[in-house]
Amino acid sequence: MVANSWTPATAGSTPDPWQGHAGPAQTGLGLEEQAFLVGGPGRAAEFAVMSLTEAGALRISRDGLVSPVQSRTQPRTPLQARTLASVPRSLGDVITATAGGPESGRLRLHLIDRGFVVSPGRRRAVRGLRRLVVLAAVLGVFAAIALDLPFAVAGGTAVAMLLVAAVLGRAGRPLTASGRAEVRRLRQAAATAMTEPGIPNRLTLVAAYGLLGKVRGQYLWRILGIAPTVSATLRRRSRSQGSSGGASCGGGCGSCSSSSCGGGSSSDSGSSSSSDSGGSSCGGGGGCGGGGGGD
Amino acid sequence: MEKLGVGIGWRPEIDLTVERLPGVDFVEVVAENLHVSHLPESVLLLRDRGIPVLPHAVSLSLGGAEPVDRDRVAHLASLAEALDAPLVSDHVCFVRAGGLDSGHLMPLPRTRDALDVLVANVKAAQQDLPVPLALENVAALLEWPDADLTEGQFFAELVDRTDCHLLIDVANLYANARNLGTDVSRFLDEIPLERLAYVHVAGGEEHQGVYHDTHAHAVRPEVLDVLAQLRARVDPPGVLLERDDHYPADAELAGELAAIRAVLG
Fold first, then answer.
1. For residues A278 and A262, what is the distance between their CA atoms, to the nearest angstrom?
2. Cystine design at A92: which of A10, A160, A233, B33 (Cβ 3.0–4.6 Å)?
3. Which has the closest alpha carbon to A276: A182, A121, A169, A191?
4. CATH dotted code for B5-264
5. Where are the beta strands (DSSP E) in B32-138?
6. Distance from C-alpha of B243 to C-alpha of B221, rounded to nearest angstrom
């Protein structure tokens, strides 16, 4: 059996190869998909690697070398299949390879199709329109001054146009309202997971925060018991790195420190930061390329 | 010989597994893969736990016609000291000749001339080693013609002339029995088992009628049968599971160690 033909037990009527692990709510999205929405391909790749590790299909050495465990464990998602095909490598390299594979691009398209991620074309159009509106507002102010129009008319027009620009800015975020709702659900589940003894839902935390994310002042990798020598192989990437070309919140974050790419203001208590702007916002330290955007 | 117990080959890919496996009494490291100046954290941790760490060399080429490379011996010696190892080991084989490296552990002609060369090299190595040297039988896919001695006689005379210890690989013995017709019982009867340091156990697979000692597959019951034959003659100071690739789950490795313990009784 191959990943593409896997039919998840938790899926709805339509078999969905991306749902390796059921998400925290009855939304039809798996944790891997939610990880993508929160942190982009890098986060989804982290999730794929860690879910395979938790399942015993991969082992990580003290130095961070990820190697396959000889078994009949089958990948549950295409991203997991890419991960298994990418080892042995260091943890950071496996995540980068997985995030940079064609499967993460297909996951993005899948989430666009399902209405969780805004398509790149629409985002480009909205951003272009927004620039035009801002430009028109500026020109309008100059024109009002030149034509000696009353200040109330000029100012009112400019304010109205800037309000339109702000609305368009929100419309240009990488995630749809449904996508942002998924991100909020995941963060809520992660916050709950942190209160449970023994942290049984480790993968929920990986999806929500990323290994380099900070939860209650501690790096998640440390909370999960990953050795510092292993975490040293993880790397943060700037938004411009690894992007599949163009806008959005980057394409290939090797390991993103935290949230979020258009997730909307979150209700979680542990995430180091969040963003409601549609761009990335990485609180855990260096820049983060992850994001759910839609290139 | 010091009692070692049941152990497993330490490899970087399974370092954490080796650390957490229950009942690992000793480990073996491949000497050529380590540098004394920066030993792996895991190896140092095991050493500090009091678990014997035995350097196992694969490149001394003690059976080669050329004098033994003193730099390689020096590396093995420094590793033994850094790890507080009770002994070190290599194979009865050659791996290079005329400037070429075979990449394999090549069997020796079991002639008296070859034995003389081997004995000279072993003695030279022993002079530079701070701990006893144990020598291992290899798996071979060919035998040189015109042998003067059986494999058991060859090893017995080697021990007699060098006072070396023996590292008997029962998987190699099984492979040679399968592929070359080596008489396992006769071999075990002829070698001086009182010089036995420890035993290797490993897995393999049959391919086109030839058994390959891959160290990448599960240990076959037939190999454990050879271990049982040895156990019927002597209580080995140590038995070590070797696995070099396609590492299985921790539970499977633990199961193989348990199977070894069951044979030892």
1. 4
2. A233
3. A169
4. 3.20.20.150
5. 53-56, 88-91, 94-97, 100-106, 133-136
6. 16
Query: Do the chains contact at B247 and A70, CB–CB below 8 Å?
Result: yes
Q: Please report the DSSP string for A234-273 in residue order.
A: -----TTTT-SSSSSS-S--SS--S--BS--S---SS-S-
> Is B192's Cβ below 8 Å from some Cβ in A?
no
Tokens found for residue B56: 């196992």
Q: Over the range B64-78, which residues count as b (16 or more CB within 10 Å of their CB) and which as e?
A: beeebbeebbebbbb
Q: How far is CA A218 from the centre of its chain?
A: 20
The bridge status of strand B210-212 relative to strand B26-30 is unpaired
Which is it for strands B88-91 and B133-136: parallel, antiparallel or unpaired?
A: parallel
First to last CA, chain A: 31
| pLDDT one-digit tens code per residue, B144-167 | 999 999 999 999 999 999 999 999
| A263 touches A37 (CB < 8 A) | yes
8 A C-beta contact, residue A77 and residue A3: yes
What would the two tokens of residue A113 be?
A: 């199709």
Contact B14 A61 (CB under 8 A): yes
pLDDT digits (tens, 9 = 90+) for A44-78: 999 999 999 999 999 999 999 999 999 767 899 99
Residue type, position A256, single letter: C
ipTM of the prediction: 0.86
CA distance linking residue A110 with residue A28, whole number of Å: 13
Question: Domain extents for chain A?
Answer: 3-116+176-231, 120-171
- Which pair of tokens denotes residue A186? 């995941």
Nearest residue in chain A measured CA to CA from B13: A61
Query: Among A96, A60, A54, A53, which Cα is nearest to A255's?
Result: A96
How far A262 CA sits from the closest chain B CA (Å)?
39
Determine, for residues A69 and B13 on separate chains, whether the beta-carbon distance falls below 8 Å: no
Q: How far is A64 from B224, CA to CA, in rounded Å?
A: 34
A69–B249 C-beta distance less than 8 A? yes
Residue of B nearest to A90 (CA): B13
Q: Which two tokens stand for residue A4?
A: 């593409």
pLDDT tens digits for range A224-274: 999 898 999 997 755 444 433 333 343 334 444 333 343 333 333 333 333
